[in-house]
Amino acid sequence: MVRAAVLPAVGSPLEIADIDLPEPGPGQVRIKLAAAGVCHSDLSLTNGTMRVPVPAVLGHEGAGTVVSVGEGVTHVAPGDGVVLNWAPSCGSCHACSLGEVWLCANALAGAGNVYAKRSSDGSDLHPGLNVAAFAEETVVAANTVLAVPDGVPLTDAALLGCAVLTGYGAIHHSARVEAGETVAVYGVGGVGLATIQAARIAGASKIIAVDVSPEKEELARGAGATDYVLASENTAREIRGLTGKQGVDVAVECVGRAVTIRTAWESTRRGGRTTVVGIGGKDQQVTFNALELFHWGRTLSGCVYGNSDPARDLPVLAEHIRAGRLDLGALVTEHIALDGIPAAFDNMVVGKGGRALVLF
Questions:
Q1: What's the CA gap between 167 and 353, in Å, rounded?
Q2: Is the pLDDT of residue 129 over 90?
Q3: Residue-wise pLDDT tens digits, 289-339
Q4: How does pLDDT run across 214-235, given as a tens digit for each residue?
Q5: Residue 351: is its pLDDT beyond 90?
Q6: Do 169 and 308 contact (CB within 8 A), yes or no?
Q7: Span 277-303, pLDDT tens digits
């Protein structure tokens, strides 16, 4: 038996429970978790903004050590440190054939599988976003496992599985920020802090962080923000005032709310780029009129998982970490145990802190 955080139904609170894991079958790997990040996407699964089969063990940002492997698994072995990739590409769908592996049509196919049983009653459990990282141990498909790069501590490596790949990719792959450009980042949570660091690495001349909480200014500036704006109805005007009345070259929205997306758009200069990373609900409707789309000439784009290919990008991120350019520890504002996840969800709802990291 292992302890895990179980979502019994959408809208229900998480339950810390014992679960029974099978031994890994062909093409599977059993992992002992070292750490798991508490991401806003996990919260979105609990409230139905995103949908997965339930009951489920949540958690998709994690790293740990291989305990055992099933038949046919050769790229990792017991004792290896690994990062979990919650959205593995199938390699054969249309998006994968175009090299857009972050849009793989089959990336979440494993979430519908039954991967474990609840110890108390033998009921079936699904693996959240494929990997079920909110547990002491998990059993995953081999294609969700990537070796931890040399020089990256195992607990820190958990953050590579979502926050860092997403934030770095939003800057380098989606918005393609160039040295000297100006950037605004909306939302100073785990992904937002990673985005700020990525903008600094890209050589942005001005990085404006935006959040509803004044307490996050220190976090933002520590990550590389040159300016901090407290979110209000005048946010776009303030940002234009900080950029010679032009607006930023790039605005990255990490919140997933209609009003924030609209504000990010309005704070982008004429001909600039607005990238939406945050995951909003279907009720979050954003409107534009035809004339402004023509007049401003801005590009508005969605960004899935940072438009990243983990196999390609992890070695690049590791080099930034080893060189001291990327500080994973700066994303974490709280270390918690498994039973601290519900409180971490509450903190996200009120916009408190950066990334909470579960240590096992």
A1: 17
A2: yes
A3: 999 999 999 999 999 999 999 999 999 999 999 999 999 999 999 999 999
A4: 999 999 999 999 999 999 999 9
A5: no
A6: yes
A7: 999 989 999 999 999 999 999 999 999
91 burial class (0-12, 13-18, 19+ CB within 10 angstroms)?
Answer: exposed
Alpha-carbon span 110 to 106, nearest angstrom: 8
Residue 168 neighbours by CB under 8 Å, 6+ apart: 194, 195, 197, 198, 201, 306, 308, 313, 317, 326
- Which residues does 239 contact at the CB level (< 8 Å), separation at least 6? 184, 208, 210, 229, 247, 248, 267
- Determine if residue 136 is left, alpha or beta; phi over 0 gives left, psi from -120 to 50 gives alpha, anything else beta: alpha
Q: Of all residues in the chain, what percent carry a pLDDT higher than 70?
A: 100
